[in-house]
């Protein structure tokens, strides 16, 4: 029991630092994404638009998956920050690419079309899983 408590005491500060850093990266990425999108998700949410809520939920989960992968595979705080930023930038670019391909998607979400939001969720989570898997590649240099 004593070893478990000592392990907790010595590891808990690192847990807080790494988890806090990952949370901050996620918050910054979500904010950046919201600022880049043509529709105003928060205003739509406040007006009761469920599709905007679905689409934003897909974004948050889609951004969290690569961050979780970085958190799980990082060997240092610098490693987490660098690969976290890289993965988030790639994910945001992937999101923007999807948004460009599905041109009428922002309008459809503004019109509260759930089907459009569900498609967006699927594409964003799928791209997050692919990016997340690439972060586990043993050939990727770790810091």
TrEMBL record:
One of its GO terms (cellular component) is plasma membrane. It holds the Pfam family DUF350. It comes from the Bacteria. Its main location: membrane. The chain crosses the membrane at residues 15-36, 48-68, 80-102, 114-136. It is a multi-pass membrane protein. InterPro entries: DUF350. Belongs to the UPF0719 family. This is DUF350 domain-containing protein. It comes from Hirschia baltica (strain ATCC 49814 / DSM 5838 / IFAM 1418).
């Amino acid at each position: 029991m004593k070893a478990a408590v000592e392990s907790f005491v010595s590891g808990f500060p690192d847990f807080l630092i790494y988890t806090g850093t990952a949370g901050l990266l996620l918050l910054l990425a979500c904010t950046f994404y919201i600022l880049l999108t043509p529709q105003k998700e928060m205003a739509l949410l406040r007006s009761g638009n469920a599709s905007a809520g679905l689409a934003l939920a897909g974004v948050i989960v889609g951004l969290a998956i690569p961050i979780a992968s970085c958190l799980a595979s990082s060997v240092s705080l610098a490693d987490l920050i660098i690969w976290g930023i890289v993965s988030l930038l790639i994910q945001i670019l992937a999101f923007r690419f999807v948004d460009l391909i599905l041109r009428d998607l922002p309008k459809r979400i503004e019109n509260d079309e759930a089907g459009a939001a569900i498609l967006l969720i699927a594409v964003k989570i799928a791209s997050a899983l692919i990016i997340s898997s690439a972060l586990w590649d043993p050939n990727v240099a770790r810091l």
